[in-house]
Design a protein that fits this description.
single chain, mainly alpha
């Protein structure tokens, strides 16, 4: 059933199949190497992101402890302005009372000077 040249044909077929298998093995090795390199890059990137996030969080804590936000500064300014306004109105009231006291003293002195003579 098998002819005289069948050994050559089978050998040639095996050589082609072995060549294709070797080619596939080399290509697969390249894919695996690239996949491992990508995984290494991904892990390095994740470590770098983690380090950046850690530094950013540390900076946020530093800023929150050492710097004042705009909202807090505005609230403090409003409270100070309100306190100064109240202090100003109290001082105006005190000055008005002192003025009335001085006027009353002058009026009493004048009435004592004119009534007692």
């Amino acid at each position: 059933m098998i002819g005289d040249n069948s050994g050559v044909t089978i050998g040639l077929a095996l050589a082609v199949v072995a060549g294709l298998f070797a080619l596939w093995w080399r290509i697969e090795a390249k894919f695996v190497a690239e996949q491992m390199a990508r995984q290494a890059m991904v892990s390095l990137e994740q470590e770098a992101r983690h380090a950046i996030e850690k530094d950013l969080n540390a900076f946020k804590v530093y800023v929150s402890h050492n710097h004042v936000s705009t909202i807090v500064l505005k609230e403090t300014e409003d409270r100070l302005i309100t306190s100064f306004d109240r202090l100003y109105s109290r001082m105006e009231t005190l000055v008005a009372r002192l003025d009335r006291l001085a006027q009353n003293m002058v009026a009493r002195d004048r009435s004592n000077d004119t009534g007692g003579s």
